[in-house]
From TrEMBL, chain A:
Keyword Ribonucleoprotein in annotation: no
Database matches in InterPro entries: BP-dep_ABC_trans_perm, MetI-like, MetI-like_sf
Ranges annotated as spanning the membrane: 7-28, 62-85, 97-118, 130-153, 174-197, 237-255
Coiled coil: none
Protein's organism: Acrocarpospora corrugata
GO annotation (BP), single: transmembrane transport
Recorded GO CC terms: plasma membrane
SUPFAM superfamilies xrefs: MetI-like
Similarity comment: Belongs to the binding-protein-dependent transport system permease family.
Official protein name in the record: Sugar ABC transporter permease
TrEMBL record, chain B:
Residues spanning the membrane: none
Gene Ontology cellular-component annotations: ATP-binding cassette (ABC) transporter complex, substrate-binding subunit-containing
Name of the protein: ABC transporter ATP-binding protein
Keyword Translocase: yes
UniProtKB keywords: ATP-binding, Cell membrane, Membrane, Nucleotide-binding, Translocase, Transport
A single MF term (Gene Ontology): ATP binding
Automatic annotation (TrEMBL), chain C:
Assigned protein family: Belongs to the binding-protein-dependent transport system permease family.
Major location (coarse): membrane
GO BP: any one term: transmembrane transport
ABC transmembrane type-1 domain location: 72-278
Positions of transmembrane segments: 12-37, 67-98, 105-126, 154-182, 203-221, 266-286
A single Gene Ontology CC term: plasma membrane
Protein's organism: Acrocarpospora corrugata
SUPFAM superfamilies per the UniProt record, alphabetical: MetI-like
Keyword Transcription regulation listed: no
One of the Pfam families matching this protein, by short name: BPD_transp_1
Coiled-coil ranges per UniProt: none
Bilayer topology annotation: Multi-pass membrane protein
Name assigned to this protein: Sugar ABC transporter permease
Compartment(s) where it occurs, according to its Swiss-Prot or TrEMBL record: Cell membrane; Membrane
Length: 270, 367, 288
């Protein structure tokens, strides 16, 4: 029995990891062996990595990705926390409407926004700028933060806030001294999810930019060409793909620990 | 220290339901008052209205003569102990207890002194640096109490503070709470659904049912002179035997026979209430008696509880499931009683101890 | 008094929700309206002078165009097939990670890796894996075959890339649903004589139905807007465009705002229809 589950475990792990290992392996292949079709490199090299880190466009793309991602995440977290707290704890008309509206945006086909945003941003001078990407990123990260955070807030017993009120806290003190410290694990998780969304985006990044001024890393990769390097860009693309993936995989490992922390957050119930 | 007055206080929800209807109650300074009733009776809502956690729909709440309806909880100077204890999981015991004081911006040395004093009083000194997750149920309960008393508030509100403890600890904490309240002399309003807790703790008990106060009085009064059928059935364990009776000239005709009683002034049908402890199996001079087979006998050590089942006419021969279609009579007997399960026993009672209720209004006609 | 305090709470809620709501409306509401207006105009950036209201002519152009319908068919096919495969695989993964005590943490972590990988990065991985000469998977095929240059194999690879990337998300959603099935109920069912399969079909599935429907709804709408994978793998060549790809090409390549906007509106309507079908017909409840 245990053996069978163990076998399935191994299958699941292979399923998840082999495609990743393939890109990693490709990124370490020497240009002369890149078309050998073997799963593992026969001749190892770091030149692909050295190459992309000498590529100003890619470095600029990384800076754009990090900057735009962090700013969007921060803003979405601040506004999302406010709205999520209201949804989780306060009674107000239009609550269901707000929930429905954010759900609508979460499921919205982004392409439907790209055409009008392209035109609007061009007329407002936002096209090919950081704010031009930050605005749609915030918009699409908000439903995510509102949903996840309100679920986390709802898990915190309302009696704690009532106790804080009885202990003499103002509504803001109750929120700041009691709810926020308890919601930190959830907020970290949510921030990671929001950042992953921004980091992962491709459609807005290639549609609303035209130069490396605001083009994020995933979009930059798609503009890699072999011509400037006198060779096929496969190795560089693979290396760049690994580079932009590493931070997210680290986040995901961190996120995993947060999930466990969330599951064992029984202390709140105590 | 404070006097709390509820003057015609009601709670209605926007959907039209009334949770609490027109409570008039004066809680004296230093008094320990219990709000008791089944779940949904409005006792917790009443407590929350005193706390300021719920709006008062109509009526006035006064603390020390001042109207406080509009005041936020923090401006009422009242401390509360919650059923779940509501300890802040991210703070140590010390920080939990100091929280109300730091919010009140007391100087640090004073906070430390007060927390230290309260911790000593509740035997929490050794636990001050622990987090709530690392405490036992009883210890958490004490921390919750500690957080309430450090502030030296005008009043304590307690919302079923013992219901999450196991039976043994509950009894132990019950006496500690009573002792603490006497010692501090702080006006206390205590909510519970447990009539034993209510009987043992309070100076006065307020019994509520479906949002309406049924009776207010000291425990003995509620036990001896229940105002109506609900109070009669709620107070006392096992509950009072309530037997439908026909009023005839010779007395009240019930399933346990005729209870000698003057019939003048009584409606044709009444409910006769006899407490289980009113029965005994030795003869009472001038008493009445009935004889029947003991259905079940529970030996509790300090007492024996005997159950008698009487076939009621309506169910006839076909009745009699394990859950008993017949009417049951419970008697609480002396441990030395010779009653045996499955054998007939004769029980005596004093007809003067029988309560008579109006079956329609439920009002006690003998009280 | 009551009204006053309620009013205070409402006002607080309003202030708390205002920034998020305003941003969402500003970035979606106005552009949608604008998009609708553009779809009724001849608006080609290559001919800026030649702009006018033309009613529904753009809609007639798009709906009469075989490329649009091919893209629509491809999108529908990819959506249905990949979501179906994901549901089965996701359920398996959810059951495996849920049931195994040994290495549960490892499996859970590893399963999240595809979710964490940037879609474009993974898409390049798949592209090179199937590129003749370069790829380890292409090497397994008969010599001379180039799967990404033929419609059917290319779509199969698109589905593969999509399934690989999003199955973890499906599994996560299903795992939360699985956690809602009380262990005691399963024990009771086995006491009542239900075997493993019966317990799954008669107890687990019905109780998970809301979670499954929500997961399906989310993934269907997400798959319908597929863009990144196709852009990298084929860029829409050999009739593998999705509706998002074709709309993108009309905008960025063709600079035809009118046609692009018309496609945007049509995609929006399709998504609305899918959501409506899920919520009305299957009774999927919105979470929260």
């Amino acid at each position: 029995m245990k053996l069978r589950w163990g076998f399935i475990d191994v299958l699941v792990i292979l399923y998840a990891l082999i495609p990743v290992l393939w890109i990693v392996s490709l990124s370490f292949k020497d240009p002369s062996t890149i078309t050998d079709g073997s799963l593992l490199p026969t001749k190892w090299t770091l030149s692909n990595y050295a190459g992309i880190f000498r590529n100003d466009d890619f470095l600029r793309g990384l800076v754009n990705s990090i900057g735009i991602g962090l700013i969007s995440t921060f803003v979405a977290m601040v506004f999302g926390t406010m709205a999520a707290y209201a949804i989780a704890r306060l009674a107000f008309p239009g609550k269901r409407l707000l929930i429905g509206f954010s759900l609508l945006i979460a499921m919205f086909p982004q392409i439907s926004l790209v055409t009008p945003l392209f035109q609007i941003e061009r007329s407002l001078g936002l096209f090919d700028t950081w704010p031009g990407l930050i605005l749609p990123y915030i918009t699409f990260a908000l439903p995510l933060t509102i949903y996840t955070l309100s679920a986390f807030f709802k898990e915190i017993p309302a009696e704690l806030e009532r106790a804080a009120k009885m202990d003499g806290a103002t509504p803001f003190q109750a929120f700041w001294k009691v709810i926020v410290p308890l919601a930190v694990p959830g907020m970290v998780t949510t921030a990671i999810l929001a950042f992953i969304f921004c980091w992962n985006d491709f459609l807005f990044a290639i549609s609303l930019t035209s130069t490396s001024a605001a083009r994020t890393a995933p979009a930059t990769i798609s503009f890699f060409t072999g011509s400037s390097q006198f060779e096929d860009p496969t190795g560089s693309i693979a290396a760049a793909a690994v580079v932009i993936t590493i931070p997210i995989v680290i986040f995901v490992l961190f996120f995993q620990r947060r999930i466990v922390a969330g599951l064992t957050a029984g202390a709140v119930k105590g | 220290m404070a006097e709390i007055v509820l003057d015609g206080v009601s709670k209605r929800y926007p959907d039209g339901t009334t949770a609490v209807h027109d409570i008039n109650l004066t809680i004296a300074d230093r008094e320990f008052v219990i709000l008791v009733g089944p779940s949904g009776c409005g006792k917790s809502t009443t407590l929350n209205m005193i706390a300021g956690l719920e709006e008062i729909s109509s009526g006035e709440l006064r603390i020390d003569g001042e109207r406080v309806n509009e005041r936020a909880p923090r401006d009422r100077d009242i401390a509360m102990v919650f059923q779940s204890y509501a300890l802040y999981p991210h703070m140590t015991v010390r920080e939990n207890m100091a929280f109300p004081l730091t919010l009140a911006k007391l100087p640090k040395p004073e906070v430390a002194a007060k927390v230290g004093h309260a911790a000593q009083l509740l035997d929490l000194t050794a636990l001050l640096d622990r987090k709530p997750a690392n405490l036992s149920g009883g210890q958490r309960q004490r921390v919750a109490m500690g957080r309430a008393i450090v502030r030296d508030p005008k009043a304590f509100l307690m919302d079923e503070p013992l219901s999450n403890l196991d039976a043994k600890l509950r009894v132990q904490m019950r006496t500690s709470i009573a002792r603490l309240q006497k010692r501090l002399g702080t006006t206390t309003v205590y909510v519970t659904h447990d009539q034993t807790e209510a009987m043992t703790l309070g100076d006065r008990i307020v019994i509520m049912y479906s949002g309406v106060v049924q009776q207010v009085g000291p425990p003995e009064e509620l036990y001896d002179r229940p105002a109506n059928l609900f109070v009669a059935g709620f107070i006392g364990s096992p509950s009072m035997n309530l037997l439908p009776a026909q009023v005839r000239d010779d007395g009240l005709h019930t399933i346990i026979g005729v209870i000698p009683h003057r019939s003048r002034g009584l409606p044709p049908e009444v409910v006769a209430g006899i407490r289980p402890e009113a029965f005994q199996d030795t003869r009472i001079r001038g008493g009445a008696s009935f004889t029947d087979t003991v259905d079940i006998l529970e030996s509790m050590g300090a007492e024996k509880i005997a159950y008698f089942t009487f076939e009621t006419g309506e169910t006839g021969e076909s009745g009699g499931t394990a859950f008993g279609d017949g009417a049951q009579v419970v008697a609480r007997l002396d441990p030395k009683s010779r009653a045996r399960e499955g054998e007939p026993a004769t029980l005596w009672y004093d007809p003067a101890a029988v309560h008579i209720f109006d079956p329609d209004s439920g009002v006690n006609l003998t009280a | 008094m009551t009204a006053e305090r309620d009013l205070g709470e409402r006002r607080l809620a309003l202030w708390l929700c205002a920034p998020a709501t305003l941003i969402m409306i500003a970035v979606t509401g106005w552009p949608i309206l604008y998009s609708f207006l553009l779809s009724l105009r001849r608006a080609d950036l290559r001919f800026p002078a030649d702009q006018e209201w033309i009613g529904l002519a753009n809609y007639a152009t798009v709906l009469g165009n075989p490329y649009w319908w091919t893209a629509f068919g491809v999108t529908a096919l990819v959506t249905v097939v990949s979501v179906a495969i994901e549901l089965v695989l996701g359920m398996l993964v959810a059951l495996v990670t849920f049931r195994t005590i040994v290495g549960r943490g490892v499996v859970r972590t590893v399963v999240l890796v595809p979710y964490g990988i940037v879609t474009v990065a993974a898409a390049y991985g798949w592209k090179y894996a199937w590129t003749p000469g370069t790829g380890w998977l292409a090497g397994l095929l008969p010599a001379g075959s180039a799967p990404l240059t033929e419609q059917a194999p290319a779509i199969a690879i698109i589905i593969l890339a999509e399934v690989w990337k999003t199955t973890p998300f499906m599994a996560l959603l299903l795992m939360t649903g699985l956690a809602l099935v009380p262990e005691e109920l399963l024990r009771a069912a086995s006491m009542d004589g239900a075997n493993r399969w019966q317990r799954f079909t008669k107890i687990v599935l019905p109780l998970m139905k809301p979670a499954i429907l929500v997961a399906l709804l989310f993934r269907t709408l997400d798959a319908f807007r597929i863009f990144d994978n196709i852009y990298v793998l084929t860029n829409g060549a050999q009739h593998t465009s999705s509706v998002s790809i074709i709309a993108y090409h009309n905008l960025i390549g063709g600079l035809n705002l009118g046609i692009g906007s018309t496609m945007s509106v049509l995609i929006l309507i399709s998504v609305a229809v899918i959501a409506f079908v899920f919520i009305r017909v299957f009774g999927a409840a919105a979470p929260g």
